[in-house]
Every structure is written in C-alpha cells, then in structure tokens.
C-alpha cells in the first residue's frame, strides 16, 4: 500500500500526518518506508536526520543517479526513510522536459519491498506531487479546522486526481482528515459544511494540541512521545483504517 499525504494548502498538518501514520503502521508490525518529496524536506528534518551524513537522497533517485534503495536510512524510530534536500526543486524543473515525467517516482518505488510506503509531498499540485499521486493507492488530505482555504485545496486536489486517468487505473482513493480540530468553534462548523458540500466525510479528526509542536521541536513523533494523547489516538484510528485497506487489497 502506498499512502500519499497531499494538500496544496500549507500549514494543515500534512507532514505531521505522514510521520505519525508511518510510525503507527510500524508499531502495528508493518515494514514501513517514509518518502520525502518536499523541497522543504520537513519530514526529513522532523525525524532528526542529519543531512551532512547522507550519501544520497530522493533527489538522486529521481535524477536516475542511484538505485532506489541506496538513499534509504534504516530504522529511524522504527521506520525506514528516503530523505530529501532542497535540491528537489531543481530536479522538479529538470523532470518537466522528460518523457514519462509523471511516473518516475512510481517506477522507483515498485522495486522496493515494504508493507506500506507513506509519502509526504509539497504544498502544491506540481510535478512532484503528481508523481506521488500517480504512485498512490490512497491519498490522505488534511484540512485544518481553522483554515477555510484548506477545504478549497481539497477540491482542487480531487480535481487533479480525476485527471490521472490516462496515467493509471484505478484512481487512488481520497480520504480527508480534519486537523487542529476544536469542538464547538464556528470555523469548525464552516469547514464541516464546506466538506459536506463537496460530498466528503472526514475519516478522522485530529484535535488541536500544543504537544504536536513540542514533538516537532524534539524531533520525535507524537506517536512516540505521547502514545496515549488524543492526537495519537486519532492518528491510530487513521492508521488502522489504512492498514485494513492494505489487508483487503
């Protein structure tokens, strides 16, 4: 199963979602690879990976310079990671002129043997995100409960997925989660209404907690630093749904 966390709106918890879903799938006994295809390399940084110690990254894989298994950093809090660097932005530009540019990532991941691969993407719908979507079995789209623009971002993401038909069938499933959830807030009701108008029902609600920021600063996923927190429980619910989908598939 390949799970892609995508949203063209930034600041909605996309990277936090990718990291914690990966961690919780690993805790359930699955072999998990987290792949960072964001030029901001937030997933790489938040997992505490030192860039200076890397001999290769996803940049080298997408450029065709190394085999897909070479950049993998093993056993980072229990998962394997294919890290990224800022040079990804240059690779995206280089790929734009290549034949088959949308399927480069999928081709690379097909040779790797993991129960689950979780991909973190840039906050846009550019070529790197499209590469991830083409590889995906399921797309998890976080929508922040305090950001009405994030609901519009999901609508545009769904439109992009619908256009992938010439590149792959079946299309990946789209699962929406609400992040930074605050019960009984007016904006939360607005977001719920916007998602309902799109025919989308959130599969999980991740509450707004300062512990998420603390975990990011500590370079330790909240699934590990606060395993019994409401945030972890919400991500565990999501991970269980994804794992069930993997088994059924």
Brief account:
The protein is α/β, with parallel strands linked by helices.
How would you characterize the overall build of this protein?
The chain has one domain: 3-Layer(aba) Sandwich (Rossmann fold). Helices cover 43% and strands 17% of the residues. It is built from eleven helices and eight strands. An eight-stranded mixed sheet has the order 3-4-2-5-1-6-7-8, sandwiched between helices. Helix 7 (148-162) links the parallel strand 6 and strand 7 (173-181). Helix 1 (14-27) crosses helix 11 (230-248). The radius of gyration is 17 Å and the shape is globular. The termini are close together.
* Domains, number: 1
Q: Indicate the CATH architecture.
A: 3-Layer(aba) Sandwich
**How would you spell out the order of helices and strands?**
EHEHHEEHHEHEHEHEHHH
CATH class: Alpha Beta
Strand content: 15-25%
Bin the helical content: 40-55%
Q: Stretches where pLDDT falls below 50 for ≥5 residues?
A: none
Shape estimate: globular
> Widest sheet: strand order?
3-4-2-5-1-6-7-8
- Report the end-to-end length measured between terminal Cα atoms: 8 Å
Topology:
Layout: E1 2-5, H1 14-27, E2 32-36, H2 42-46, H3 58-63, E3 73-76, E4 79-82, H4 88-95, H5 104-109, E5 116-120, H6 127-135, E6 138-144, H7 148-162, E7 173-181, H8 186-197, E8 204-207, H9 210-217, H10 222-225, H11 230-248
Parallel strand pairs: 1-5, 1-6, 2-4, 2-5, 6-7, 7-8
Antiparallel strand pairs: 3-4
Helix pairs in contact: 1-11
């Amino acid at each position: 199963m390949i799970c892609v966390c995508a949203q063209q709106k930034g600041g909605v918890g996309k990277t936090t979602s990718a990291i914690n879903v990966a961690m919780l799938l690993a805790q359930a006994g699955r072999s998990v690879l987290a792949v960072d295809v964001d030029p901001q390399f937030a997933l790489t940084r938040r997992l505490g990976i030192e860039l200076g110690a890397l001999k290769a990254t996803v940049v080298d894989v997408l450029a065709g310079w190394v085999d897909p298994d070479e950049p993998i950093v093993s056993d980072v809090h229990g998962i394997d990671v294919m890290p990224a660097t800022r040079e990804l932005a240059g690779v995206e530009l280089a790929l734009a002129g290549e034949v088959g540019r949308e399927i480069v990532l999928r081709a690379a991941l097909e040779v790797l043997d993991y129960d689950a691969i979780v991909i973190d993407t840039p906050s846009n719908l550019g070529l790197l995100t499209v590469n991830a979507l083409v590889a995906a079995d399921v797309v998890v789209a976080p929508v922040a409960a305090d950001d009405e623009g994030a609901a519009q971002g999901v609508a545009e993401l769904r439109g992009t997925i619908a256009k992938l038909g010439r590149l792959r069938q079946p299309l990946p499933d789209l699962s929406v989660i609400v992040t930074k959830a605050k019960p009984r807030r007016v904006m939360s009701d607005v977001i719920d209404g916007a998602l309902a108008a799109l025919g989308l029902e959130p599969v999980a609600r991740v509450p707004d907690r300062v512990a998420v920021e603390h975990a990011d600063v500590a370079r330790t996923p909240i699934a590990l630093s606060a395993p019994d927190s409401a945030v972890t429980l919400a991500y565990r619910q999501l991970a269980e749904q994804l794992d069930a989908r993997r088994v059924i598939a």
